[in-house]
Amino acid sequence: MRFSGLFSIPVVIIVLNFSYLWQFDKENRDSWQQPDRIMDTLGIKAGMIIGEAGAGEGYFTFKLANRVGEQGKIFANDIDEKKLKKIEERCQEENIHNITIILGKTEDPLFPKAELDMAIMVYVFHHLEKPVAFLKNIKASLKPSAPLVIIERDPDKFNDRSGHFLPKKEVIQAIKEANYNLSNMETFLPRDNIFICHPRK
Predict the structure, then answer these.
(1) Domain range for residue 190?
(2) What is the pLDDT of residue 158?
């Protein structure tokens, strides 16, 4: 029996980095990101007005909207019109009226001025082309003493070799360069850090 030519066929071996896929386990996201605990920690309550930068398809948006209730409001910003359209469609389907869509710019979320009790960004910071400029442009939208909250994956917590997420020291450096004080950093989440910042006066 001859096998001529059999071993001339190129063989491609694909190695999947399952540790990297694990970090994007969206199906169980509530269990590892603990959105209710985050909102409890941040003191998010009924009646608040919150700007969410980089809302995407609304994972956190709708949780915020439910927490602030009908007397509150969520401004959901993104630069991806298609993703914002999905939020809009869900609002129509579920009869939700406390979410306002904002199509922003790369360096500016275009939140209304001096209206926000809090600005929050979840897994957005590492995508920003000019993070310092973006953070600076949020300031004018915050009420006095209102915080900016950045929730970011910490590469040190899951031995990230992809370089997709930034080390916390780089996040902190950008916060300082944007003229914010880092008031607190919560580290209780298994994958993320919560940076709570206030504009310097």
Answers:
(1) 35-199
(2) 75
